Amino acid sequence: MAMVGLYRRVLPSPPAIDFASSEGKKLFIEAIQSGTMEGFYRLISYFQTQSEPAYCGLATLSMVLNALSIDPGRKWKGPWRWFDESMLDCCEPLEKVKEKGISFGKLVCLAHCAGAKVEAFRTNQSTIDDFRKYVVRCSTSDDCHVISSYHRGAFKQTGSGHFSPIGGYHAEKDMALILDVARFKYPPHWVPLTLLWEAMDNVDGTTGQHRGFMLISRPHREPGLLYTLSCKHESWVGIAKYLMDDVPLLMKSEDVKDVKKVVSVVFTSLPSNFGEFIKWIAEVRRREDGNQNLSPEENGRLALKEEVLKQVQETALFKHVAAFLSTVNSCCRNTLGLSIESNLPDIVARVCCQGAEILDGKSGSLEGYCCQETCVKCLKANGDKPVTLVSGTVVNGNSEQGIDVLVPSCQTCQTCCGSTPNNCVAIYPAGNDVLTALLLALPPETWYGIKDEKLLKEMHTLVDTKNLPTLLQEEVLHLRRQLHLLKKCQENKVDEDLAAPLF
Protein backbone atom coordinates (compact mmCIF):
# COMPACT_ATOMS: atom_id res chain seq x y z
CA MET A 1 0.00 0.00 0.00
CA ALA A 2 1.42 3.39 -1.01
CA MET A 3 1.76 6.17 1.56
CA VAL A 4 1.13 9.69 0.31
CA GLY A 5 3.14 12.43 1.98
CA LEU A 6 4.99 15.69 1.45
CA TYR A 7 8.47 16.63 2.62
CA ARG A 8 8.85 20.41 2.43
CA ARG A 9 8.42 22.57 -0.66
CA VAL A 10 10.93 24.22 -2.94
CA LEU A 11 10.92 27.93 -2.14
CA PRO A 12 10.00 29.86 -5.34
CA SER A 13 13.03 32.11 -5.88
CA PRO A 14 12.60 34.69 -7.20
CA PRO A 15 10.67 36.44 -5.77
CA ALA A 16 11.82 35.14 -2.36
CA ILE A 17 15.42 34.65 -1.26
CA ASP A 18 16.19 31.75 1.09
CA PHE A 19 17.57 33.13 4.37
CA ALA A 20 20.26 30.40 4.46
CA SER A 21 21.41 30.93 0.87
CA SER A 22 24.58 32.89 0.03
CA GLU A 23 22.51 35.86 -1.08
CA GLY A 24 20.27 35.55 1.99
CA LYS A 25 23.29 35.54 4.32
CA LYS A 26 24.70 38.60 2.56
CA LEU A 27 21.42 40.48 3.04
CA PHE A 28 21.40 39.44 6.70
CA ILE A 29 24.93 40.74 7.37
CA GLU A 30 24.24 44.03 5.57
CA ALA A 31 21.00 44.51 7.50
CA ILE A 32 22.80 43.86 10.80
CA GLN A 33 25.40 46.48 9.89
CA SER A 34 22.59 48.92 9.10
CA GLY A 35 20.93 48.32 12.48
CA THR A 36 17.68 46.93 11.09
CA MET A 37 17.88 43.44 12.61
CA GLU A 38 17.53 44.33 16.30
CA GLY A 39 14.16 42.62 16.64
CA PHE A 40 15.51 39.44 15.03
CA TYR A 41 17.46 38.14 18.01
CA ARG A 42 14.54 37.82 20.40
CA LEU A 43 12.27 36.40 17.72
CA ILE A 44 14.78 33.78 16.63
CA SER A 45 15.25 32.77 20.27
CA TYR A 46 11.57 31.78 20.39
CA PHE A 47 11.09 30.72 16.75
CA GLN A 48 8.66 27.83 16.57
CA THR A 49 6.95 25.65 14.02
CA GLN A 50 3.17 25.66 13.98
CA SER A 51 1.92 22.37 15.44
CA GLU A 52 -1.10 22.11 13.12
CA PRO A 53 -1.41 23.00 9.41
CA ALA A 54 -3.92 25.76 10.25
CA TYR A 55 -2.20 27.08 13.39
CA CYS A 56 0.00 29.69 11.67
CA GLY A 57 -1.74 32.55 13.47
CA LEU A 58 -1.53 30.93 16.90
CA ALA A 59 2.11 29.91 16.45
CA THR A 60 3.06 33.39 15.25
CA LEU A 61 1.33 35.12 18.16
CA SER A 62 2.70 32.78 20.86
CA MET A 63 6.20 33.22 19.40
CA VAL A 64 5.92 37.02 19.53
CA LEU A 65 4.38 37.09 23.03
CA ASN A 66 7.20 34.93 24.38
CA ALA A 67 9.79 37.06 22.58
CA LEU A 68 8.36 40.10 24.39
CA SER A 69 8.52 38.25 27.75
CA ILE A 70 4.84 38.81 28.48
CA ASP A 71 3.67 36.68 31.41
CA PRO A 72 0.47 34.75 30.50
CA GLY A 73 -0.63 34.68 34.12
CA ARG A 74 -1.81 31.09 33.48
CA LYS A 75 -0.02 27.77 33.56
CA TRP A 76 1.04 26.00 30.38
CA LYS A 77 2.34 22.65 31.67
CA GLY A 78 3.67 21.70 35.07
CA PRO A 79 4.28 24.93 36.99
CA TRP A 80 5.36 26.90 33.92
CA ARG A 81 3.61 30.00 32.67
CA TRP A 82 4.40 30.13 28.97
CA PHE A 83 2.54 31.02 25.78
CA ASP A 84 1.75 28.05 23.59
CA GLU A 85 -0.76 27.62 20.78
CA SER A 86 -2.96 25.62 23.16
CA MET A 87 -3.18 28.67 25.48
CA LEU A 88 -4.70 30.91 22.80
CA ASP A 89 -8.30 29.80 22.76
CA CYS A 90 -10.34 32.55 24.42
CA CYS A 91 -11.52 34.14 21.15
CA GLU A 92 -11.98 31.03 19.01
CA PRO A 93 -12.25 27.31 19.91
CA LEU A 94 -9.06 25.44 19.03
CA GLU A 95 -10.97 22.74 17.15
CA LYS A 96 -12.42 25.41 14.88
CA VAL A 97 -8.99 26.99 14.33
CA LYS A 98 -7.55 23.55 13.56
CA GLU A 99 -10.19 23.08 10.89
CA LYS A 100 -10.41 26.55 9.32
CA GLY A 101 -7.61 28.70 10.70
CA ILE A 102 -8.21 32.05 12.35
CA SER A 103 -9.17 35.43 10.96
CA PHE A 104 -7.07 38.57 11.21
CA GLY A 105 -9.56 40.20 13.58
CA LYS A 106 -9.70 37.24 15.94
CA LEU A 107 -5.91 37.04 16.11
CA VAL A 108 -5.90 40.74 17.04
CA CYS A 109 -8.50 39.91 19.69
CA LEU A 110 -6.27 37.13 21.06
CA ALA A 111 -3.31 39.49 21.29
CA HIS A 112 -5.39 42.03 23.23
CA CYS A 113 -6.74 39.29 25.50
CA ALA A 114 -3.20 38.03 26.21
CA GLY A 115 -2.30 41.44 27.63
CA ALA A 116 -0.18 42.79 24.76
CA LYS A 117 -0.31 46.30 23.37
CA VAL A 118 -1.67 45.97 19.82
CA GLU A 119 -1.91 48.32 16.86
CA ALA A 120 -3.65 46.64 13.93
CA PHE A 121 -4.17 47.88 10.38
CA ARG A 122 -5.85 46.46 7.32
CA THR A 123 -4.26 47.51 4.04
CA ASN A 124 -7.32 49.58 3.11
CA GLN A 125 -6.80 51.47 6.38
CA SER A 126 -3.10 52.18 5.87
CA THR A 127 -0.47 52.82 3.20
CA ILE A 128 2.69 51.05 2.11
CA ASP A 129 4.71 54.01 3.38
CA ASP A 130 3.20 53.64 6.85
CA PHE A 131 3.80 49.88 6.73
CA ARG A 132 7.46 50.45 5.83
CA LYS A 133 7.76 52.95 8.69
CA TYR A 134 6.41 50.40 11.19
CA VAL A 135 8.67 47.64 9.85
CA VAL A 136 11.70 49.90 10.27
CA ARG A 137 10.59 50.91 13.75
CA CYS A 138 10.29 47.31 14.96
CA SER A 139 13.42 46.17 13.11
CA THR A 140 15.56 48.78 14.86
CA SER A 141 14.42 47.81 18.37
CA ASP A 142 13.53 44.67 20.27
CA ASP A 143 10.47 45.97 22.10
CA CYS A 144 7.94 45.52 19.28
CA HIS A 145 7.31 43.03 16.48
CA VAL A 146 5.28 43.04 13.28
CA ILE A 147 2.91 40.19 12.41
CA SER A 148 1.88 40.05 8.77
CA SER A 149 -1.32 38.48 7.39
CA TYR A 150 -0.81 37.79 3.69
CA HIS A 151 -1.73 35.55 0.76
CA ARG A 152 1.03 33.17 -0.32
CA GLY A 153 0.02 33.41 -3.98
CA ALA A 154 1.84 36.73 -4.38
CA PHE A 155 5.12 34.89 -3.72
CA LYS A 156 4.22 31.97 -6.05
CA GLN A 157 4.00 29.75 -2.96
CA THR A 158 1.41 27.04 -2.45
CA GLY A 159 -1.40 27.71 -0.04
CA SER A 160 -3.53 30.76 0.60
CA GLY A 161 -3.85 32.98 3.70
CA HIS A 162 -0.95 32.85 6.15
CA PHE A 163 0.47 34.56 9.25
CA SER A 164 4.14 35.00 10.12
CA PRO A 165 6.27 37.54 11.98
CA ILE A 166 8.66 39.89 10.20
CA GLY A 167 12.17 39.26 11.50
CA GLY A 168 14.09 42.17 9.97
CA TYR A 169 14.48 44.64 7.13
CA HIS A 170 17.11 45.45 4.50
CA ALA A 171 16.74 49.17 3.81
CA GLU A 172 18.85 49.44 0.63
CA LYS A 173 17.08 46.52 -1.07
CA ASP A 174 13.72 47.35 0.58
CA MET A 175 13.26 43.72 1.58
CA ALA A 176 11.63 42.16 4.65
CA LEU A 177 12.63 38.90 6.31
CA ILE A 178 9.66 36.58 6.88
CA LEU A 179 10.20 34.05 9.67
CA ASP A 180 7.74 31.54 8.27
CA VAL A 181 6.23 29.49 11.11
CA ALA A 182 5.34 26.73 8.62
CA ARG A 183 8.95 25.57 8.76
CA PHE A 184 7.92 22.11 7.57
CA LYS A 185 7.02 23.79 4.29
CA TYR A 186 9.24 26.82 3.62
CA PRO A 187 12.36 28.18 5.34
CA PRO A 188 12.69 31.82 6.48
CA HIS A 189 13.01 34.03 3.43
CA TRP A 190 13.54 37.58 2.25
CA VAL A 191 10.84 39.18 0.06
CA PRO A 192 10.48 42.63 -1.53
CA LEU A 193 8.47 44.79 0.84
CA THR A 194 6.36 46.08 -2.04
CA LEU A 195 5.41 42.50 -2.91
CA LEU A 196 4.63 41.74 0.73
CA TRP A 197 2.28 44.73 0.74
CA GLU A 198 0.63 43.33 -2.38
CA ALA A 199 0.28 39.95 -0.64
CA MET A 200 -1.39 41.63 2.35
CA ASP A 201 -3.62 43.77 0.13
CA ASN A 202 -5.86 40.78 -0.44
CA VAL A 203 -9.44 40.18 0.64
CA ASP A 204 -10.05 37.23 2.94
CA GLY A 205 -12.99 35.38 1.39
CA THR A 206 -14.16 34.17 4.79
CA THR A 207 -14.63 37.61 6.35
CA GLY A 208 -14.83 39.83 3.26
CA GLN A 209 -12.17 42.04 4.87
CA HIS A 210 -8.67 42.99 3.72
CA ARG A 211 -5.70 41.31 5.34
CA GLY A 212 -3.09 43.50 7.01
CA PHE A 213 -0.50 43.74 9.74
CA MET A 214 -0.28 44.33 13.46
CA LEU A 215 2.35 45.73 15.81
CA ILE A 216 2.70 43.80 19.06
CA SER A 217 4.55 45.32 21.99
CA ARG A 218 4.71 45.07 25.76
CA PRO A 219 2.25 47.15 27.77
CA HIS A 220 3.93 49.68 30.04
CA ARG A 221 2.98 47.40 32.90
CA GLU A 222 1.91 43.79 32.68
CA PRO A 223 -1.74 43.23 33.62
CA GLY A 224 -2.86 40.24 35.63
CA LEU A 225 -0.47 40.79 38.55
CA LEU A 226 -2.74 39.11 41.07
CA TYR A 227 -6.03 38.09 39.44
CA THR A 228 -6.68 36.13 36.30
CA LEU A 229 -9.69 34.94 34.34
CA SER A 230 -9.39 31.28 33.41
CA CYS A 231 -10.03 31.76 29.71
CA LYS A 232 -8.96 28.19 28.99
CA HIS A 233 -11.56 26.58 31.22
CA GLU A 234 -14.78 25.39 29.59
CA SER A 235 -16.81 27.58 31.95
CA TRP A 236 -15.32 30.73 30.38
CA VAL A 237 -17.97 31.36 27.72
CA GLY A 238 -21.01 30.52 29.84
CA ILE A 239 -19.96 32.52 32.88
CA ALA A 240 -18.89 35.49 30.77
CA LYS A 241 -22.34 35.43 29.17
CA TYR A 242 -23.94 35.40 32.62
CA LEU A 243 -21.87 38.38 33.77
CA MET A 244 -22.21 40.42 30.58
CA ASP A 245 -25.81 39.60 29.58
CA ASP A 246 -27.73 38.12 32.50
CA VAL A 247 -26.57 40.36 35.36
CA PRO A 248 -27.78 43.58 33.64
CA LEU A 249 -31.17 41.90 33.12
CA LEU A 250 -31.30 40.85 36.78
CA MET A 251 -30.65 44.46 37.81
CA LYS A 252 -33.73 45.47 35.78
CA SER A 253 -36.01 42.67 36.94
CA GLU A 254 -35.10 42.49 40.63
CA ASP A 255 -36.35 45.05 43.13
CA VAL A 256 -32.99 46.00 44.63
CA LYS A 257 -33.02 48.59 47.38
CA ASP A 258 -29.48 48.56 48.73
CA VAL A 259 -25.93 47.49 47.83
CA LYS A 260 -26.18 44.29 49.86
CA LYS A 261 -29.15 43.20 47.74
CA VAL A 262 -27.24 44.05 44.54
CA VAL A 263 -24.31 41.90 45.62
CA SER A 264 -26.67 39.12 46.68
CA VAL A 265 -28.51 39.10 43.33
CA VAL A 266 -25.25 38.87 41.40
CA PHE A 267 -23.63 36.10 43.42
CA THR A 268 -26.53 33.90 44.44
CA SER A 269 -27.41 33.32 40.76
CA LEU A 270 -23.88 32.41 39.70
CA PRO A 271 -23.40 29.25 37.61
CA SER A 272 -22.23 26.31 39.70
CA ASN A 273 -18.81 26.15 38.02
CA PHE A 274 -18.03 29.78 38.75
CA GLY A 275 -15.09 28.88 40.98
CA GLU A 276 -13.05 27.97 37.91
CA PHE A 277 -13.52 31.38 36.30
CA ILE A 278 -11.56 33.93 38.32
CA LYS A 279 -8.64 33.14 40.60
CA TRP A 280 -5.68 34.74 42.29
CA ILE A 281 -2.26 33.70 41.08
CA ALA A 282 -0.23 31.76 43.65
CA GLU A 283 3.44 31.12 42.95
CA VAL A 284 4.99 27.93 44.30
CA ARG A 285 8.47 26.49 44.50
CA ARG A 286 10.12 23.40 45.97
CA ARG A 287 11.56 24.06 49.38
CA GLU A 288 14.75 22.26 48.45
CA ASP A 289 15.25 24.52 45.44
CA GLY A 290 16.97 26.99 47.72
CA ASN A 291 16.94 28.63 51.11
CA GLN A 292 14.18 30.88 52.33
CA ASN A 293 15.67 33.99 50.77
CA LEU A 294 13.67 35.45 47.90
CA SER A 295 15.28 36.55 44.67
CA PRO A 296 14.90 40.21 43.62
CA GLU A 297 12.39 39.10 40.96
CA GLU A 298 10.30 37.16 43.50
CA ASN A 299 10.48 40.06 45.92
CA GLY A 300 9.39 42.52 43.24
CA ARG A 301 6.43 40.42 42.10
CA LEU A 302 5.24 39.86 45.65
CA ALA A 303 5.48 43.55 46.47
CA LEU A 304 3.28 44.40 43.50
CA LYS A 305 0.78 41.66 44.32
CA GLU A 306 0.60 42.90 47.88
CA GLU A 307 -0.06 46.45 46.76
CA VAL A 308 -2.88 45.36 44.43
CA LEU A 309 -4.46 43.30 47.21
CA LYS A 310 -4.15 46.18 49.66
CA GLN A 311 -5.80 48.53 47.18
CA VAL A 312 -8.71 46.11 46.64
CA GLN A 313 -9.28 45.75 50.35
CA GLU A 314 -9.29 49.52 50.79
CA THR A 315 -12.19 50.05 48.36
CA ALA A 316 -15.65 50.80 49.72
CA LEU A 317 -17.05 48.01 47.54
CA PHE A 318 -14.86 45.44 49.33
CA LYS A 319 -16.57 46.22 52.62
CA HIS A 320 -19.99 45.50 51.10
CA VAL A 321 -18.80 42.22 49.55
CA ALA A 322 -17.15 41.11 52.79
CA ALA A 323 -20.32 41.94 54.73
CA PHE A 324 -22.40 39.87 52.29
CA LEU A 325 -20.08 36.87 52.46
CA SER A 326 -20.08 36.98 56.26
CA THR A 327 -23.84 36.29 56.17
CA VAL A 328 -23.63 33.45 53.66
CA ASN A 329 -23.84 29.96 55.16
CA SER A 330 -21.34 27.25 54.34
CA CYS A 331 -23.71 25.54 51.89
CA CYS A 332 -24.02 28.68 49.80
CA ARG A 333 -20.27 29.24 50.02
CA ASN A 334 -19.72 25.87 48.41
CA THR A 335 -22.20 26.84 45.70
CA LEU A 336 -20.14 29.93 44.99
CA GLY A 337 -17.15 27.64 44.50
CA LEU A 338 -14.74 30.20 45.93
CA SER A 339 -12.03 30.09 48.55
CA ILE A 340 -13.52 32.41 51.14
CA GLU A 341 -11.82 30.91 54.17
CA SER A 342 -10.26 33.38 56.56
CA ASN A 343 -7.61 30.90 57.72
CA LEU A 344 -4.43 31.33 55.70
CA PRO A 345 -3.04 27.85 56.46
CA ASP A 346 -6.26 26.26 55.15
CA ILE A 347 -5.95 28.16 51.89
CA VAL A 348 -2.26 27.37 51.55
CA ALA A 349 -2.69 23.67 52.37
CA ARG A 350 -4.82 23.35 49.24
CA VAL A 351 -2.39 25.43 47.18
CA CYS A 352 0.55 23.35 48.42
CA CYS A 353 -1.18 20.19 47.22
CA GLN A 354 -1.80 21.79 43.82
CA GLY A 355 1.81 22.97 43.75
CA ALA A 356 3.14 19.52 44.58
CA GLU A 357 0.97 18.06 41.83
CA ILE A 358 2.19 20.39 39.10
CA LEU A 359 5.80 20.17 40.25
CA ASP A 360 5.43 16.39 39.90
CA GLY A 361 4.38 17.01 36.30
CA LYS A 362 0.82 15.80 36.90
CA SER A 363 -2.54 17.40 36.40
CA GLY A 364 -6.11 16.56 37.22
CA SER A 365 -7.34 15.12 40.50
CA LEU A 366 -5.54 15.97 43.73
CA GLU A 367 -6.48 12.56 45.11
CA GLY A 368 -3.63 11.14 47.14
CA TYR A 369 -2.06 14.52 47.96
CA CYS A 370 -2.30 15.61 51.57
CA CYS A 371 -0.70 18.65 53.18
CA GLN A 372 0.20 17.52 56.71
CA GLU A 373 1.40 20.83 58.11
CA THR A 374 1.87 24.47 57.19
CA CYS A 375 4.22 27.06 58.57
CA VAL A 376 3.67 30.80 58.06
CA LYS A 377 6.75 33.01 58.09
CA CYS A 378 7.32 36.68 57.39
CA LEU A 379 10.67 37.26 55.76
CA LYS A 380 12.51 40.56 55.66
CA ALA A 381 15.68 41.07 53.68
CA ASN A 382 17.90 44.03 52.86
CA GLY A 383 15.68 46.49 54.66
CA ASP A 384 12.63 45.64 52.53
CA LYS A 385 9.22 45.29 54.14
CA PRO A 386 8.21 41.73 55.09
CA VAL A 387 6.79 39.23 52.63
CA THR A 388 4.82 36.15 53.58
CA LEU A 389 6.21 32.71 52.88
CA VAL A 390 4.04 29.71 53.75
CA SER A 391 5.70 26.31 53.74
CA GLY A 392 3.78 23.06 53.56
CA THR A 393 4.77 19.41 53.80
CA VAL A 394 2.85 17.43 51.19
CA VAL A 395 2.56 13.65 51.33
CA ASN A 396 1.59 11.51 48.35
CA GLY A 397 1.79 7.81 49.08
CA ASN A 398 5.28 7.09 50.34
CA SER A 399 6.76 10.33 49.01
CA GLU A 400 7.04 13.59 50.90
CA GLN A 401 8.09 17.02 49.67
CA GLY A 402 8.27 20.55 51.00
CA ILE A 403 6.44 23.27 49.09
CA ASP A 404 6.78 27.04 49.52
CA VAL A 405 3.91 29.31 48.53
CA LEU A 406 4.72 32.97 47.95
CA VAL A 407 1.77 34.93 49.30
CA PRO A 408 1.17 38.71 49.33
CA SER A 409 2.91 39.84 52.50
CA CYS A 410 1.71 40.52 56.00
CA GLN A 411 1.03 44.05 57.18
CA THR A 412 2.41 43.33 60.67
CA CYS A 413 3.43 40.02 62.11
CA GLN A 414 6.13 38.13 63.90
CA THR A 415 7.70 34.91 62.64
CA CYS A 416 5.13 32.35 63.67
CA CYS A 417 6.42 28.94 62.65
CA GLY A 418 5.41 26.54 65.38
CA SER A 419 2.92 28.97 66.88
CA THR A 420 -0.66 29.90 66.13
CA PRO A 421 -0.84 31.44 62.64
CA ASN A 422 -3.62 33.74 63.80
CA ASN A 423 -0.96 35.70 65.69
CA CYS A 424 -0.13 37.18 62.30
CA VAL A 425 -2.20 40.15 61.21
CA ALA A 426 -2.03 39.31 57.53
CA ILE A 427 -3.59 40.32 54.27
CA TYR A 428 -3.85 37.61 51.67
CA PRO A 429 -6.17 36.79 48.77
CA ALA A 430 -9.53 35.20 49.56
CA GLY A 431 -13.02 35.09 48.10
CA ASN A 432 -14.06 38.57 49.25
CA ASP A 433 -11.34 40.43 47.35
CA VAL A 434 -11.61 38.12 44.32
CA LEU A 435 -15.34 38.87 44.05
CA THR A 436 -14.68 42.58 44.58
CA ALA A 437 -12.19 42.63 41.69
CA LEU A 438 -14.73 40.89 39.46
CA LEU A 439 -17.51 43.36 40.31
CA LEU A 440 -15.18 46.26 39.56
CA ALA A 441 -14.38 44.67 36.18
CA LEU A 442 -18.01 44.57 35.02
CA PRO A 443 -18.91 47.29 32.48
CA PRO A 444 -20.48 50.47 33.96
CA GLU A 445 -23.68 49.83 31.98
CA THR A 446 -24.24 46.66 34.04
CA TRP A 447 -25.96 48.75 36.69
CA TYR A 448 -28.08 51.02 34.45
CA GLY A 449 -31.21 48.91 35.10
CA ILE A 450 -31.31 49.75 38.83
CA LYS A 451 -34.54 51.67 39.32
CA ASP A 452 -33.68 53.38 42.60
CA GLU A 453 -31.82 56.54 41.56
CA LYS A 454 -30.04 56.92 44.90
CA LEU A 455 -28.81 53.31 44.77
CA LEU A 456 -27.79 53.65 41.13
CA LYS A 457 -25.66 56.66 42.01
CA GLU A 458 -24.12 54.81 44.94
CA MET A 459 -23.26 51.79 42.76
CA HIS A 460 -21.62 54.01 40.15
CA THR A 461 -19.50 55.59 42.87
CA LEU A 462 -18.51 52.17 44.25
CA VAL A 463 -17.45 50.73 40.88
CA ASP A 464 -15.96 53.86 39.31
CA THR A 465 -12.49 52.85 38.07
CA LYS A 466 -11.35 56.45 37.56
CA ASN A 467 -10.93 56.89 41.28
CA LEU A 468 -8.96 53.66 41.78
CA PRO A 469 -5.20 53.68 42.40
CA THR A 470 -3.16 53.06 39.25
CA LEU A 471 -2.16 49.44 39.91
CA LEU A 472 -5.68 48.33 40.79
CA GLN A 473 -7.17 50.35 37.95
CA GLU A 474 -4.97 48.57 35.39
CA GLU A 475 -5.68 45.18 36.96
CA VAL A 476 -9.43 45.77 36.81
CA LEU A 477 -9.40 47.21 33.29
CA HIS A 478 -7.49 44.17 32.01
CA LEU A 479 -10.18 41.87 33.42
CA ARG A 480 -12.86 44.10 31.88
CA ARG A 481 -11.03 44.08 28.56
CA GLN A 482 -11.03 40.28 28.53
CA LEU A 483 -14.77 40.17 29.21
CA HIS A 484 -15.44 42.76 26.53
CA LEU A 485 -13.33 40.96 23.92
CA LEU A 486 -15.04 37.66 24.54
CA LYS A 487 -18.44 39.28 24.14
CA LYS A 488 -17.28 40.88 20.89
CA CYS A 489 -16.14 37.45 19.69
CA GLN A 490 -19.47 35.90 20.58
CA GLU A 491 -21.20 38.59 18.53
CA ASN A 492 -18.77 38.09 15.59
CA LYS A 493 -17.71 41.74 15.63
CA VAL A 494 -13.94 41.38 16.03
CA ASP A 495 -13.25 41.59 12.30
CA GLU A 496 -15.24 44.81 12.04
CA ASP A 497 -13.43 46.68 14.82
CA LEU A 498 -9.71 46.04 15.43
CA ALA A 499 -9.23 48.68 18.11
CA ALA A 500 -8.53 47.86 21.73
CA PRO A 501 -11.50 48.41 24.05
CA LEU A 502 -11.47 51.87 25.58
CA PHE A 503 -12.80 52.31 29.11
TrEMBL record:
Origin: domain of life: Eukaryota
BP terms from Gene Ontology: cellular detoxification of cadmium ion; detoxification of copper ion; phytochelatin biosynthetic process
Residues in Peptidase C83 domain copies: 1-221
Pfam families recorded: Phytochelatin, Phytochelatin_C
EC number, as in UniProt: 2.3.2.15
Keywords: Acyltransferase, Cadmium, Metal-binding, Transferase
GO MF entry, a single one: glutathione gamma-glutamylcysteinyltransferase activity
Cross-referenced InterPro entries: Papain-like_cys_pep_sf (IPR038765), PCS-like (IPR040409), PCS_N (IPR007719), PCS_N_sf (IPR038156), Phytochelatin_synthase_C (IPR015407)
Official protein name in the record: glutathione gamma-glutamylcysteinyltransferase
